[in-house]
Amino acid sequence: MNTVHEEHSGGKIGMWLFCANEMVLFGGLFLLYSMYRFKNPAAFHVSSLELSRLFGTLNTCVLLTSSLTAAISTLALKKNDAKKAGAFLLATVGLASVFLIVKGFEWAAKFEHGLYPNSPVLLAKSKGEILYFGLYFLMTGLHAVHVIVGIGVMMFVYVWIRQGKVSAQKPIFFENTVLYWSIVDAIWLFLFPLFYLVT
Questions:
Q1: Which residues of 7-46 are buried (b: 16+ CB within 10 A; e: fewer)?
Q2: Is the pLDDT of residue 151 over 70?
Q3: Global confidence as pTM
Q4: Contact criterion met (CB below 8 Å) for 73 and 89
């Protein structure tokens, strides 16, 4: 029993260290963004008007809802209701997929208007605007990769729930997955105002 507790504690600590590393990574990018925004406030404001606040707000609502479904899934697992836990985990995966689809449409619109790194249209703009869109694609792209990883891991956990390898008695992998997803959602809550609500 003590061994199981030690494995649970070790797994949690390892996951928190991983999440801390992710926050350091994005924290550095947020700092870089802030520095360039301070130097180019007008250009960043003009560039932000090129983004769709509707898409940004929609994706924010989608991710907030996915946090709710992930939390409900966690509660269901703690109550030993594997079926409900799996169902709400699949709902979280579905919402994450919606996020990527919306982001895909948004990126496609930017490419259609020539607003992507090294495009002739973007290179003709000011240095501040070039920096803004460079950071936009870098940071939202990196976040999208984290969303894709999250989807893959959650599907893996879902299979394990069905197989009985994850349960109320063996929750560590599930709990770490939900913790990871919470970090992914939290990062977006910083990205959304930085890029879409620049004033």
A1: eeeeeeeebeeebeebeeebeebbeebeebbeebeebbeb
A2: yes
A3: 0.90
A4: yes
Question: What is the distance between the alpha carbons of residues 59 and 144, in angstroms, rounded to a whole number?
Answer: 12
Residue 39: the pLDDT is 95
Which residue matches tokens 């989807």? 151
**Scanning the structure block, which residue is given the tokens 């992930």?**
70
Q: Which two tokens stand for residue 1?
A: 């029993």
Contacts of 95 (CB under 8 A, 6+ apart): 62, 63, 65, 66, 69
Amino acid at 93: V
- CATH class of the domain at 2-196: mainly alpha
Q: Give residue limits of the domains in the chain.
A: 2-196
Q: Which residues contact 137 (CB under 8 A, 6 or more apart)?
A: 107, 116, 117
